[in-house]
Amino acid sequence: MTTINRRNDYRAPMAQDKQTNENLKSAGLSTSKALVLVFIIFVLSLTALGLLYSQFPKLEEHEKQHLKLPWNLEDAKQLGLVLDRYKDKYFYEVLLGVFLVYIFLQAFAIPGSIFLSILSGFLFPFYLALLLVCCCSAIGASLCFFLSNLLGKKLVRRFFPERAAQWSKAVTKHKNNLLNYIIFLRVTPFLPNWFINMSAPVIGVPLTPFALGTFIGVAPPSFVAIQAGQTLHTLTSTSDAWSWTSITILSIFAFISLVPVLLKQKLREKFD
């Protein structure tokens, strides 16, 4: 009997692993197919950016070297000078270019979107730049959400099934306050945006509060970046955009985003 029980003990985890693998396979695309699909989407996106570049007005030789993704503030300054020269005559082409590149960076969690936010403040009127950045952030983050949901969730469930289940339970517990939490995370610098974009679908955050929370939550920090962009050529680093006033404003917005959650908890405690 002892031998039989031991065999059953060994078979139980094997059966659970087999069942988990079957559930993963039945959930949709396999991990390898999802990886290939993400790669294809990335290549197609690069191709679209290449086509956009080919449609841009003919540049001077010394300008071509500056028409690239801004990896630092100096790149943003040089790119701003080039785009500002063509902005009046080719306004919608420049606007579309910034729009698509911003979404591309957000969708594939590529650094550099902060420089595009600053650049938007330099190129466009303040309220247009703010709307542009908020829309690009929400759309790009949602695409990153989709890609992570396609691939990242499968990897986490495959290698960390117990932890994924715990995270999902935590999200379910706070499902009525997810919008407020997303807004809070976007306003505050505690977690980088690329990490929020990639981890949200893995832990079971629905797309609607994620996208809406992103649109609302990125507005306050984007306000600071866009305002700094209006004096782009005087900036020496991105930290120049921050002041005690801007930090105080962001702290107030972060607190306001959690006020409904705190009120709900107080009311629940009172009536319980």
Automatic annotation (TrEMBL):
It holds the Pfam family VTT_dom. InterPro entries: TM41A/B (IPR045014), VTT_dom (IPR032816). The chain crosses the membrane at residues 34-54, 94-118, 124-148, 241-263. Keywords: Membrane, Transmembrane, Transmembrane helix. It comes from the Eukaryota. GO terms for cellular component: endoplasmic reticulum membrane. Residues 110-230 form the VTT domain. It is a multi-pass membrane protein. It is found in: Membrane. One of its GO terms (biological process) is autophagosome assembly. Belongs to the TMEM41 family. This is VTT domain-containing protein. It comes from Euphydryas editha (Edith's checkerspot).
